[in-house]
Amino acid sequence: xxxxxxxxxxxxxxxxxxLAADFYEFQSRLTDTEQRALTSIRAFxxxxxxxxxxxxxxxxxxxxxxxxxxxxxGLYGNAFPETWQFENSAVFRGWxxxxxxxxxxxxxxxIGVHSGLAMTxxxxxxxxxxxxxxxxxxxxxxxxxAFGLTEPDHGSDTxxxxxxxxxxxxxxxxxxxxxxxxxxxxxxxxVVIWARDVxxxxxxxxxxxxxxxxxxxxxxxxxxxxxxVENADIVLENVVVPESDRLQKIDGFRxxxxxxxxxRGDVAWQALGVAVGAYEASVEYAKNRVQFGKPIASFQLxxxxxxxxxxxxxxxxxxxMRVSQLQDEGAQRDHHSAMAKAFVTKRMREVVARSxxxxxxxxxxxxxxxxxxxxxxxxxxxxEGTYDMNSLIVGRAITGIPAFV
Length: 405
Ligand code: FAD
What we know:
Elements: H1 7-12, H2 32-59, H3 66-72, H4 90-103, H5 105-125, H6 128-139, E1 145-148, H7 158-161, E2 165-169, E3 172-183, E4 190-197, E5 203-209, E6 215-219, E7 231-242, H8 253-288, E8 290-291, E9 294-295, H9 300-328, H10 334-358, H11 371-382, H12 387-399
Helix pairs in contact: 2-4, 4-5, 4-8, 4-9, 5-6, 5-8, 8-9, 8-10, 8-11, 9-10, 10-11, 10-12
Bound molecules: flavin-adenine dinucleotide.
């Protein structure tokens, strides 16, 4: 299914110019159609997202008015044949995630939750009927979705520790428990809730339509990273969900792990976008800031930092490209995307720190283009598996020995 969107308009655009941060010209590996689509996506980001990102961030408000605009560009559900609007390519989807994050990591996270985690859960775990009911509507941005896995007492150890319960009573299930950090969770129309079946101890997925009796989503305040993503604490008290709203193809955490494998690669691309956004701002700043009578870009130590950042970005693009190629080839394994997420987020953290340093005191203020990336990097480093947990997934692949506990 394709929606009404502007695929034709997208493909009429000129090829997107290469980014200076794309030192080895990886973008040229995209098809012409994809590079034309990139031009339209960049134009949207430059006019409707980037100029307002700091204000949304400061007010800690999700730019919800963008939901239908992002749908018009065909950026939700791009991984699925039911809803994609471009040639299906994980490499291209990754590049788009990078571009969005380069403009605004919070907007990239919104899309990552709605289209990445929630829609992928439905695509991986839903019956044909469930996919037909939800995917086109979510792709059109008519409804907003969230993904509720993490709990107040269980983040890294959800596979074993998840405490939210699901009890079957006839044709219905009753959910009880609590979730934490759920992006879009206070205003989403649909929340995918992961709960443990009290009968067989297996983790199952439930499509909770909100508002629902017994469901409460409360925005988490005073957040200092990805402030324009509205995360929520969710409480479930005897929330009743019909069996027809249980994800029919999820039989345990192993099936949920498929969702995470597919989305973690995209988070690596998102982290790359954070690094590129901060790096670009630091280059600009270094060229314009004069100290000792010269632009600071003329000092060797500053050039060293820029060269290190560009090398980190270049290595990260290569890693992201390859993990997406593996996905396109059907060969991607959990440890592939875990390594990309761990490696790229670590490089990102170093790039944003160097970029902040180059901007001196101005580096901690929103108006100079680096502070938002610097702060946002911390959440990207932690969500969808911390650096440690993704490293342990790779460690298990290397040694054959799980070292999680
Ligand atoms: P913990 O698991 O408590 O970890 C704390 C520290 O201990 C980390 O450094 C970790 O690496 C380390 N650690 C834990 N176990 C081990 C071990 N065995 N070995 C070595 N080190 C270990 N979740 C959702 O379900 N849906 C969302 O939409 C969502 N969005 C998010 C958005 C933001 C902005 C943030 C910050 C989080 C979001 N999360 C979401 C939750 C996120 O996935 C978790 O924060 C993450 O999995 C880590 O869990 P935790 O915060 O409970 O940390």
